[in-house]
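Re: the request from the purification team.
They wanted to know what the chain is likely to look like in 3D before they choose a buffer screen. I agreed to run a prediction and write the result into the notebook, where they can find it.
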Amino acid sequence: MTSGPANVPVWDDRPWTSLPSLNGNLSADACVIGLGGSGLTLVHELLQRDERVIGLDAHDVGAGAAGRNGGFLLAGTYDFYHDAVRRHGHDRAKAIYGATIGEMQRMAVEAPGTVRFVGSKRIAAAAAELEDCRVQYDALRADGWPCEWYDGPDGQGLFLPTDGAFNPLARCRMLATSARHEGATLFARAPVTEIRGTSVHTPHGVVHAGRVFVAVDGRLEQLLPELSGQVRSARLQMLATAPTNEITVPCPMYYRDGYEYWQQLPDGRIALGGFRDKGGEGEWTTDGTPSAVVQAHLERFLRESLKVQAPITHRWGAPVGYTPTGLPVIAEAREGVWALGGYSGTGNVIGALAARAVVEAAIDGDERGVRLLQRTGTF
């Protein structure tokens, strides 16, 4: 494989001072485990309710999938809209779709300068997928959602103007910085070794809290083994190139039913991910280290399909949680311990919605958001 920084995402291109590590015992109203997009949204929601909040991350802000994904903001669930209607019911699918569109706008306000509303394209890789695009188009238009048929240089498929692109790591760091300014106490390099009641144990300290929120996606089943049948971790992988003008990619692109996805950053770099299905059973793992098999497929697609010869500068991976239903795990896994994760590769928007929903349920006693997003099921 072409060399580059060892498992460093293309988004990690700005100065950042790591959070302090936890040493000693502390107490708080709430302890949030995981400082990715959903965890930091949780922190802000708790602060708005005057909770004393401590946040922990095993590594650092956005160090998991939240800061290592493709930077897509997509409306809806893991399933394409017509599939979501079939699986989850029309009213529920429509409500989730509308909620995600609203959440994207909220995310742009909360992290100014990180979001570009440029739309997205779903490009068909075969005749059967093209027909599926037509079904998706009809379902979206029937419910009044913006969708355009696309037939152009990129191929054939759909253009979804409400979608967007963003820098996921920059958003996480911005949310963490503002949370600290608002009174949250956040720690890095504080891996959780045990959750005993509502006390969270780490190698060098314990947080005693009134409530605990486990807001991780990949590896959720390791922190809370009782969820192992509901969520399973898989590795997603990406690469990125040096800036190039060999092609112009105006918006995030989905291909082969979403197994491949890419975008071009404002400076011309191409960020490409996918081919999880080509890695075999070994891609069901909590290990985020890029694998030679999947990276070879990515490089071949970059060179042969996208026709990009620019040097590869970054290769990275991250574990994410998948559920049998495509909807997230949102549950009070133990008394006083809430879990959320399992976003099935679409956690940027759904994760933020899930975080707001779990705080509404745990603090406000309003479970409508949880009921909207949650669908239990086992592998």
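For the purification team: The chain has nine helices and 19 strands.
Please add any questions underneath this entry.
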